[in-house]
Design goal:
Nuclear Transport Factor 2, Chain: A; 2 domains; 7 helices; Tim44-like_dom; transmembrane
Length: about 325
């Protein structure tokens, strides 16, 4: 095999690895669902006009699954049982397959080796594409197996709640019926609460943009503060800083609000605009982003029993389903 062919094979292997790793790259709070919603952590919030597709299940949470509500008929043992690819044998088989493919690339035998040394460059690309699709399929299967089962959301959407007198920009009706948790009670949401949610949205984005960990600790629960600190540290390690500006709430409504023994919760769907830029620290060069965009996310706030609207703290972020 010529030197040129070897170089192309190594380059393609590197591009494949880069493409697989690049999917984890995401803006603050975007592309992921993490945090806790108390006793409703594993129960899907009601759909609203702002987020008609509902919310995605949590990918990261410090709440134990047995504190949530599972789908009727599914026991904890069934939810915890690993699939074929999540077991040791399946992972070993997948790892051997991927390893053999990449080594085949490096030594000139192609991803699947047995197709012959006369394989064309187009054939090599086809093999890389097949391997990438296989990897995506398996990783998607693993993610679905690892996520706790959600109890389905109400199909009727948001019920007409009590709109706050005087209104608040961006926010519509009050909370829908939600899903009953363990020993929880409905919580009325007032005009001052809507105002607080909008203010917290801007303040949290600003604190994250400024890498203000103390500010984030005041605005979020300890769990969420730890996730944001982890993301900021990860950006710093890569030599980046995530700058967010021009945050403006466009539309919002409360999916559900309730009271538990340890505090009060409100899950709010919000559509807002912002400008999100990833900047290289050393040069100030914009690596990605920079154009205004609209985002729809479902945020859950928490406050102690009997606290004021100013005491709401961000407890969870979820993406649309």
């Amino acid at each position: 095999m010529s030197l040129r062919q070897k170089f192309l094979n190594i380059l393609l292997a590197g591009l494949l690895a880069f493409g697989l790793a690049g999917e984890a790259y995401a803006r603050a709070g975007g592309g992921g669902s993490f945090g806790s919603r108390g006793g409703r952590t594993f129960s899907a919030p009601s759909m609203t006009q702002t987020a008609p597709r509902g919310a995605s299940p949590f990918e990261r949470s410090m709440t134990s699954p047995n504190q949530g509500i599972f789908r009727p008929g599914m026991g904890a043992g069934m939810g915890a049982r690993p699939g074929f690819f999540s077991g040791g044998f399946g992972r070993g088989l997948l790892g051997g397959f991927l390893g053999a493919g990449l080594f085949g690339l490096l030594f000139g035998h192609g991803l699947f080796g047995g197709l012959g040394s006369g394989m064309s460059f187009l054939g090599l690309l086809v093999q890389i594409g097949l391997l990438f699709l296989l990897f995506k399929l398996v990783m998607g299967f693993l993610r679905n197996r690892q996520q706790p089962a959600y109890q389905g959301a109400d199909q009727g959407g948001q019920a007409p709640g009590n709109q706050p007198q005087g209104g608040n920009f961006g926010f519509g009706g009050g909370p829908g019926p939600g899903r009953a948790g363990v020993n929880d009670q409905p919580l009325p949401i007032e005009t001052a609460d809507y105002t607080a949610f909008e203010q917290k949205l801007a303040a949290i984005q600003s604190s994250f943009s400024n890498e203000d960990l103390n500010g984030l600790r005041l605005l979020t629960t300890p769990e969420m503060a730890s996730y944001f600190a982890e993301e900021i540290a990860g950006n710093a390690t890569k030599g980046f800083v995530n700058k967010i500006s021009d945050v403006k709430l466009l539309q919002g409504d409360v999916a559900e609000a309730w009271r538990e023994a340890n505090g009060e919760y409100a899950t709010v769907a919000m559509r807002f605009s912002l400008t999100d830029r990833m900047i290289e620290r050393a040069s100030g060069r914009i690596v990605s982003g920079g154009t205004p965009e609209q985002v729809t996310e479902i945020w859950t706030f928490f406050r102690p029993l009997g606290a004021t609207p100013a005491d709401w703290k961000l407890a969870a972020i979820q993406q649309q389903g």
